[in-house]
Amino acid sequence: MNKSVRPPAAMPSERATGLGFADRGDDIGEPDFQAIQQSPEFKVLRKRLLWFVFPMSAFFLCWYMTFVLFSAYDHEFMSRKLFGAVNIGTGFGLLQFVTTITIVLVYRRYAHKKLDPQVDRIHELAGVGKK
């Protein structure tokens, strides 16, 4: 019997879930990306991500285009003074930064509550853990 040939070692998570590692002939292996991508857990993760990204992107695009269109076509409105040397156009421009920062903070909170636990679950099922 040839001792250099050994049977492939199956990871416990692979037997239990089908999300384990593809056998490369060594003890490490690579994640089975196709199995992970087809898993219900991954589909839930993608759905949660898309439910946040698309509406938030649409909101920001509409908000930004409002600023651009007013800037291009309604100079009189945008040049009205708010206080001192600050006009509505400057206020709208500064609000773009506020909106961007707010979206980042909202996404961070959403990811922490909804996405990160799902990613951890997928890692657990695939046998990829935090070290």
UniProtKB/TrEMBL annotation:
It comes from the Bacteria. Keywords: Membrane, Transmembrane, Transmembrane helix. Coiled coil: none annotated. The chain crosses the membrane at residues 49-70, 82-107. It holds the Pfam family DUF485. The keyword Transmembrane helix applies. InterPro entries: DUF485. This is DUF485 domain-containing protein. It comes from Streptomyces hygroscopicus.
